[in-house]
Amino acid sequence: MRRDRTAVLRGLLAAVAIALVTAPAARADTGVLRSARVLAPDHVLVRLDRAIPGLAPSRFRFTEERSPDVPIAIRSVEPQAGRRVLLTVGQRLDPAGRYRLELDEPASTLPVRPAPWALLLTVVVSAALINNFVFTRYLGLCIFFGVTKNRETAFGMGLTFTAVMVLTAMLSWAIYTFVMVPHGLRFLEIIVFIGVVAFAVQFLDTMLKKTHRALHQKWGIYLVLITTNCIILAVPLLNAAAGAGPADAAALAVGSGVGFALALFLMACAREKLELARVPASFQGLPIAFALAGLFALAFMGFSGLNFLR
């Protein structure tokens, strides 16, 4: 009896394996439209499977995914090398937007979306440079001015802050998504997020006290101040407000941590050089530090036009 059952199971497994091997690979049927990419401000680069003669604007239909009944006017179609065509539309396009492209003959439909890696890279760069929490939103200034007197302390605090940022952001996202939202506890998000941050910082404080006592003494009270730091609380709140997924939440946390670490390191380098300069007595200490922070903020405004989706 056992041999018969074994033979039957082997036969079923063999049949399933043959079916999986011989079955055609499932993929989205987009016809002759292979890929498409939005080129700001008003172009769409389309790649075709084969050359199609007589392409004209009237043969294409381009719409937004959220408004499929409102077509976007196509002004011209220009052939390009490598079976590609360049569409020029009648309005400004968002490189991060979602669109839909259709061709009448042969009938083909293709979703036009940015690559996921490009969106995540944009989130990281935006949080680190374009929308730096210190130089554009002026958050976390207590630690910023407190630990930037020398580069070693600033560098160590930047690494620690980034690690705590990523850990607390992902823990907060998991608790918010799987516990608070299903049970209707969104109104407790600030209290819960502060508790998560306090747990992570207390764990780090205990570990450093046991393993790196000298480093723990250098950071002193500023390590404890991470618990109520504006930046470390802003990231989970922004993720919760935007309904971000795990990848988006991690990207925002990494970008924010790297941006804060970069701000600490740059400020520490400038303040060390400032020790050799002749600073008027009325500007010594925090006044000249605030002036330096303002100059860095002006410099970071140069990243405002940076975009990886063009």
Word description of this protein:
The chain has 310 residues and is α+β, with helices and mostly antiparallel strands. The protein folds into two domains: 82 residues, Immunoglobulin-like (Sandwich), CATH 2.60.40.1220; 187 residues, no CATH class. The chain is built from ten helices and eight strands. A four-stranded antiparallel sheet has the order 1-2-6-5, with no helix packed on it. Helix 4 packs parallel to helix 8. The termini are far apart. The N terminus is likely disordered.
Q: Helix proportion of residues, in percent?
A: 40-55%
Helix run count: 10
Physical arrangement of strands within the biggest beta sheet: 1-2-6-5
Average pLDDT, rounded to a whole number, is 83
Q: How do the SSEs run, as a string of H and E?
A: HEEEEEEEEHHHHHHHHH
- Measured by DSSP, the beta-strand proportion falls in 15-25%
Question: Which descriptors would you attach to this protein?
Answer:
Immunoglobulin-like, 8 strands, 15% strand, 10 helices, 310 residues, alpha+beta, elongated
Q: How are the SSEs ordered, and which strands pair?
A:
Blueprint: H1 2-22, E1 33-39, E2 43-48, E3 60-64, E4 67-72, E5 74-80, E6 84-89, E7 99-103, E8 108-112, H2 116-130, H3 141-146, H4 151-180, H5 189-211, H6 213-219, H7 221-224, H8 230-242, H9 246-274, H10 286-300
Antiparallel strand pairs: 1-2, 2-6, 3-4, 3-7, 5-6, 7-8
Helix pairs in contact: 2-9, 4-5, 4-8, 4-9, 5-6, 5-8, 8-9
